[in-house]
Amino acid sequence: MLTVLAVLFAVSIVAPxxxxxxxxxxxxxxxxxxxxxxxxxxxxxxQVVGADQAATNDAPNAVPAYxxxxxPQLGVELAFRMDALGLIMALLVTGVGxxxxxxxxxxxxxxxxxxxxxxxxxxxxxAAMLGLVVSDDLVMLFIFWELTTVLSFLLIGYSAHRxxxxxxxxxxxxxxxxxxxxxLVGLLWIGQLAGSYRLSxxxxxxxxxxxxxxxxAIVLILVGAVSKSALVPFHFWLPAAMAAxxxxxxxxHAAAMVKAGVYLVARFAPGFHDTTFWLPLVLILGLATMxxxxxxxxxxxxxxxVLAYGTVSQLGFLIMVNGLGTEDAAVAGLxxxxxxxxxxAALFMVVGIIxxxxxxxxxxxLSGIGRAQRPLLIISIVAAASMAxxxxxxxxxxxxxxxxxxxSYAEVNGxxxxxVLIGVVxxxxxxxxxxxxxxxxxxxxxxxxxxxxxxxxxxxxxxDAVFLAAPAALGVFTLLFAAAPGLVxxxxxxxxxxxxxxxxxxxxxxxALWHGLTPVLGLSALTWVLGLGLFWLLGTRDExxxxxxxxxxxxxxxxxxxxxxxxxxxxxxxxTQRGSLGWYLFIIVAVATAxxxxxxxxxxxxxxxxxxxxxxxxxxxxxxxIIAGGLGAxxxxxxxxxxxxxxxxxxxxxxxxxxxGAPDLALTxxxxxxxxxxxxxLALRTLPAGIWTLNPTRFxxxxxxxxxxxxxxxxxxxxxxxxxxxxxxxxxxxxxxxxDVGNGSNIVNVTLVDIRVWDTFGEIxxxxxxxxxxxxxxxxxRRDVRRxxxxxxxxxxxxxxxxxxxxxxxxxxxxxxxxSFATVAREAWLVAGRTLAPEHRSIIFEVVTRLMFHxxxxxxxxxxLAGHNSPGGGFAGGLLAGLAFLLRYLAGGxxxxxxxxxxxxxxxMGWGLAVACFTGIFPLIVGGQTFQSFVVDLSLPLFGEHHxxxxxxxxxxxYLVVIGLIVDVLRSLxxxxxxxxxxxxxxxxxxxxxxxxxxxxxVAR
Amino acid sequence: MTxxxxxxxxxGVMLAVGIYLMLERSLTRVVLGIILLSNGVNxxxxxxxxxxxxxxxxxxxxxxxxxxxxxxxALLLTAIVIAFALVAFMxxxxxxxxxxxxxxxxxxxxxxxxxxxxxxxxxxEEDAEVDTETSEFSDPSPDSASxxxxxxxxxxxxxxxxxxxxxxx
Lengths: 1005, 169
Description:
Chain A: It is found in: Cell membrane; Membrane. The structure holds two protein chains of two kinds. Chain A is elongated. In chain A, a hairpin with a 4-residue loop joins strand 1 and strand 2 (about 75-80). In chain A, helix 1 runs antiparallel to helix 2. Among the domains of chain A are: about 295-305 and about 315-545, no CATH class; about 615-720, no CATH class; about 750-785 and about 800-1005, no CATH class. Chain A has 37 helices and five strands. In chain B, helix 1 runs antiparallel to helix 2 (about 25-45) and helix 2 runs antiparallel to helix 3.
């Protein structure tokens, strides 16, 4: 069984390909595959019918079953089992499926391109439905159940360009998924109660299961069945689902999917029809659905909707019969299920043919089709008469036993069960009436309001034999099963053995055209008479039905409840998430403050004992300076002043590091803070200096309170955790490890490049990523923009102020004086100094840069190489070199920077990472471990003895990455913003111009 | 372990000021707040090294206890450089925001604001009255409803669509 299902799903996946090759003829192949599956099911008949239906899988006389372990921890298995019920459903699913596929081969226009996915979905549905009816595991059952729901959603929404189709698809999905979820709870619950998820085991254990829990679980399962089979109050989704193409309506919404609910009821009925809520639920909802559906069917003017409401009515009927739980009802229920599948699918197919050939389904405009289309008329009369329960058709045979089972049930139980019988008779009479209305509405010749005959509807083309084959075949089966009811009896009887008769003495009924002159035949005759009367009274009216009062309109109730849900979630979201990111952050920090505070308060910590005020008085002085800087950053009225204040904090902390005994940190932080300061100014120079914010932030007090509380809580947490620390630090081992294994005496540096080298390796990767991020934010398209060659740049062109309009008279004077010096020929201190506009040049700065640059680079290389044994290393060296390039940029502008470092930043970082990788991988090649360091002793003439440690090479990688990062930042936030600022005035944006003119002068001075 | 009160208080102040600035609307202040916050965290790491000691440069005859703990120093060194990369990235973000929108403030989340407007809004996908179609094979007429903008606030709706059937909700 698993193989068959796998093959079917595989075919559904290739269906679009087949459709692309052969167009709609691909449906022939799909029909053939389903017909083969039908044959495969037929092949099982002798084995299934002869077996004991109730026997568990390992019994000798059991039905065919197939079990594979799937999730043994959860007791979930791929369990399949084909008993009589599953067999009948499987025959219906594959048989009608094959015919629907055949029908599709003509239904879709030859040019339809989107039918490929449709074919796949429809075929996958057939596979899922087959899986559903042969599943013996609750979880598998649920998975297939939801699979059919999802596929139904996709198929209803086939015409996705129409609002109606989209809305119907979502509605069907929401309603059936809602039921499916309730069912899932019920299934898992019953599985837990029974101690097994195997369906056959649960049903075998059903007599021992009782109590409220079982009752409630069964109600939940019934909710799933009721929603899937479109019973009141969920009936509205099925008529709306008629937005689907007609083959879908014929297959999913008449023969197969909506029967899943009926199947579930029939599946659980043998074990659970005597639970407390089963019969009330099944009978009341079923009867209500039958009557409401039939009444609404009589009022429709769209022939497809007549059938749709008819289906709703019949589903109610089917659930009642199948849920009744007597031996007769089991026979009747399955026979009726089969009969309904045959006639309703055929009728939908007829509607599809008429819709395709005439372009309308409106019974007020259709006229004279019966005369023109005899074959269609004959097929329809057979199917509709079977629906009405007229002899000699299978519908009559089935309905006879249905009446018989209700009649004998009422005889035994009396009271309310007579009312049920009366309701069923009325419902059946209404069925006769809407069957007649369907035939009259579709095929009759009508007159308009003035009594004139309506013009016969134009028929574009007569349907060919292939188009008619599917409904005709269904009609043939309707006749065949009526003529030889023993065929069906043979299949259904084993299932009915699972039930008791209504009373011990009652003889089991059987399927036959003639039972003799019984009260039941009288009931049938009564329904025909009543039905024709009803048709005469109501059936030929053709006004549009009045809207149902709002309270009773299930669809409106559904829509308003969905709407209320939408509104509630929008209301909740808008009240918790108002859109202010600052507020979200406030909440997060508040939680991060309150939670540790609560823990500290509840656990009652002692005040730490070992405390010192400070290591030395200098620390307190520095702390005071830093705190002043921090508060200054809050109060600073201007942007760059605040930046300076923050830098002050950084420098102060570098001092603290130095006092604590961490020279590497002090050096690195000092360099970083200096670079950050410059980069800050570079990046934000185009932003207005004075305006902090146009709408000042509120809640100053609240934020201050939160900040203070956060600081205090972290202080307390740090004090407590440090006070409770008892172990020696691991780093006590680092000193000998660094010296003896890492061959370096600077423990921090050896830690970075050897002991914890993976950390550092990760970090430089992050640096490269961040640099790339900065560059891509500024350059947007590509990082290494080709600049002009230095000699092509005209002297004094960079940053020249083109217009004096925005300047004050005093500034104009200053610019004039500066320009007068530009003509003076002088020695070039910097190669690109001449490119700067005269008003931007500072000769002293150029000279100082000239003197310091090379010395700084030398120092950085010294820091890099000596870092292994004394303060320094790749980070400090790289930052210092970066600072040197920063100096060149500030003194000589962007062309100076290009001249100073003629490599792309990306290449620098790439090489740095490559070198670092190399030091990691090289030891592997020579037989060591990743990043293992080794020593090379060199004795060079002139340089003397040298003691080279391989991990220094890793530091070179770090050095290159850090330089690359700084150069990238300088080129992005420096050079590129320069270029943009100079271009901006030309684009004559009034705002941009004034801001730019002021700020460039500001930077120049 | 001995607690250094000066470092402890300094850390607290840095964190407090950092949080205060981070909750501002101005992006520049947010970045400054993050720098100060990372300063505070750096001080936290520093304190885990315990009492001050000798610089961790190995010399003969000195006990490992006497050096200032090198492990937090290694962590701090990476933290400092990463913080620099982070700040550079945020500055680039601020510049971009300024170039694109002349905006250097934390703006409200428009999507969240839009959710607030959706309460009771008219959504044609859900609410428009649609005629049921009586044929699949008539010309697929484009939906009249889909020409409307997706969500209209109730006020607008009542201005523009008074003829829509509203009374059923």
